Every structure is written in C-alpha cells, then in structure tokens.
Amino acid sequence: MKKFKKLVAMGLCLTMCTGLLAGCGGNKAEEQQAEVPAEKQTLNVMAMTGPTGIGMVKLISDDEAGTTAVDYNIALVGAADEVSGKIVTGEVDIAAVPCNLASVLYNKTEGNVEVAAINVLGVLYILEGNGGQEIQSVADLKGKTIISTGKGTTPEYSLNYILQQNGLDPEKDVTIEYKSEAAEVATLLASGEAAVAMLPQPMVTTVLAKSDQVRVALDITEEWSKVNAENGTGMVTGTIIVRKDVLAEKPEAVATFMEEYAQSVAFVNENVEEAAKLVEASGIIPSAAVAQKAIPNCNIVCVTGEDMKKSVAAYLDVLYQANPKAVGGTLPADDFYYLP
Q1: pLDDT-based confidence at 39, cuts 50/70/90?
Q2: Beta-sheet strand order (sheet of 94-98)
Q3: Alpha-carbon Rg of the chain, whole angstroms?
Q4: Cα angle: 103, vertex 108, 112; to 5 degrees
Q5: What are the residue ranges of CATH 3.40.190.10 in the chain?
C-alpha cells in the first residue's frame, strides 16, 4: 500500500508509451514493457506496551523503512481490552497478547484464534528489600508477608502455584497483600515499608535502580521450570495469536510474518543496546536505559511448534485449575495451536 500511488503512475506512463510506439514497434514494444511489481500483502498487527511488545521493535523499524516482505500496520496499545475488541471485530489480524487472553479470545470467537508462538516467558520476580539476604529459596518465604499486584489474575495464580509446588499453603504459610498498581508496590519496597514483594519487569529494573537495599531473591520463571523439570514445560507470559480466517486467506503472509518476527526477536536479544533505543522510540518502555537493563531479564523468545504447544497447554491448565474464568471458561482444543 505504501507504494500504491507510485505504481499507478508507473502503470499509466507505460500504457501511454506503449500506445505511442504501437505503429512503429508493435509487439516488440510490448515485450520490452517493464513489468509492474506485485503489491505486498498487508497484515494488521497489534502489540501491548511492556515486555509483550519488546520483541516487535525491529519489525516495527524495518516496516517503517519499507524493508519487510509484508506491509504491516502495527499499533501499540496499553490495555488488553483494546486488543481483544479488535481481534473479535476482525480489525486486527495478528496480536501479541498475554497467554491467558489468547485462550479467552479463542473461546470468545468460537475458535477463530490460534496461538502461533510464545513470545515472552516469565517476567515475575520476588524481591527482598531492606538489605535482606534471608530469602534464598521458595521455602524461605514461609512466614513472610509478600506485597504484590494481580489479585484474581495470572500473577496471583502463578505465585500460588509456585508456593504449593514447594509445599507451602498460600493462605496459611504466607501472607499475600495485593495492591492495585505495581508502582505502589515498587514505592513500598524502595522506601523500606515492604520487606518482600513480587513485581514484573521492567518495574523490577526501575526499583533496583532507585534503591541499593533491594535485590532479586527469586526468579519465578526459574522456579516454575524447577517444579516442571520432568515434563520440560516453562512459564508463559506472552503469546502471538492470529485469526484463523486470516490464516486461511493469507497463509503465506502469516508465514512470512512469523519469519520476520523471529528475526526481530533475535535482533533484540543479540543487540540489546540498539534494541533498547528502539523500545524507547516505540514507547514500549519510556527509558532506553531502563530497557537496556530490563531486556535480558524479560525472557523475550519466539517458541513455536510442539514446544510452544506443550508449554502453553501446561500453563493454561494451571490457570484453569485455579480459576476457569482465567482462560475463558474452558481449555482450548487442539485447533488452538498453529502447527504448520
């Protein structure tokens, strides 16, 4: 679409030249006429600010430069509701969304959503403040008060799961106090009012930059992998989803997107400093300095195929056992997984 006007002008010019040369060149002029290149296919893509959108930044940059094989209309939004509505109405073809939202949308659209990749593993961390060194394992959380956000959402279910898998009762062995905003939790931790908290990246990086009395005590992603060592499944935060009708209409364009997105993710992980600048320019994280420190701890990936299916299915099952509403009421069927 970006070259549409130029292509039309080229076409008109060539048509006029062909007509003028018809009397003296005939078929030879037609044979020499340059072919107008085919127009790129277009995909409407949406991602959320924060870790879920970080892997998209090189793709955004390349698309703006016109070097991608597909024309992408990429929008970044701050709320999951904005993505949900446009997937349901068909305004967005592909989106980067939280894993549980992918399942919710699958159920809401009666199966018209497929998950194509895991794009973010876990981003949650247990932090210990006041210069403390007591928490070296999940077992050390016994008797502690943990400040967190995400009551009734995936952070709560994930924390409860990790505690339970380590033999702790979330209601008896620890006290969990939930706040409405991550910024409030960060303030309490940095000021010393809270001794233990659970926060996501990049907020973790922000807190560490503000206080040398706070440290990362536990990586929830690592703890998840430990308790799932036998089945080899990991924690999942973000996914790439695609509408099934778009897959049917533009299978080659979707396949190309997956290739170019994987290249974007590789660039982010291999060129952190440059990627951080793109992250700031895109508005995904306000500060390039914070982004540069946060990216290595955001677990940005592009996991596809059977490995993707195994981890997503296991993660959604944990959420389903905690609260079926978290995944849209029922677990998705096999047609939820894009396995080309």
Answers
A1: confident
A2: 71-77, 42-48, 94-98, 238-243, 113-120, 300-303
A3: 24
A4: 80
A5: 42-121+237-336, 124-227
Please tell me the distance from the alpha carbon of residue 23 to that of residue 32, in angstroms, as a whole number.
15
Q: Name the CATH topology of 124-227.
A: D-Maltodextrin-Binding Protein; domain 2 (3.40.190)
Tens-digit pLDDT profile for residues 274-292: 999 999 999 999 999 999 9
Q: Copy the structure tokens of residue 218.
A: 């536990």
> Do residues 195 and 143 make contact, with C-beta atoms less than 8 angstroms apart?
no
Ranges of H-type helices in the chain = 4-25, 27-32, 51-54, 57-65, 80-89, 99-108, 154-165, 182-191, 203-210, 220-227, 244-249, 251-270, 272-282, 288-294, 305-322
Task: Name every residue whose Cβ is closer than 8 Å to that of residue 157 and which is 6 or more positions away in sequence.
Answer: 318, 319, 322, 323, 326
Please provide the DSSP assignment of 255-274 as one string: HHHHHHHHHHHHHHHH-HHH
DSSP letter string over 270-286?
A: H-HHHHHHHHHHHTSSS
Return the biggest CA–CA distance within the chain. 95
Tens digit of each residue's pLDDT (9 = 90 or more) over 1-32: 443 333 333 343 434 334 433 444 445 445 54
Structure tokens at 252: 């080659």
**42-121+237-336 belongs to which CATH class?**
alpha beta
CA distances from 275 to 55, 196, 208 (A): 9, 31, 21
Per the structure block, which two tokens stand in for 33?
């006429």
According to DSSP, the residues that pair with 46 across neighbouring strands are 75, 95
Note the pLDDT tens digit of each residue in 245-262.
999 999 999 999 999 999
191-208: average pLDDT: 95
As a whole number, mean pLDDT of residues 258-277 equals 98
Using alpha carbons, select from 115, 147, 154 the residue that is nearest to residue 302. Answer: 115
Mean pLDDT of the chain: 90
Q: How far is CA 220 from the centre of its chain?
A: 18
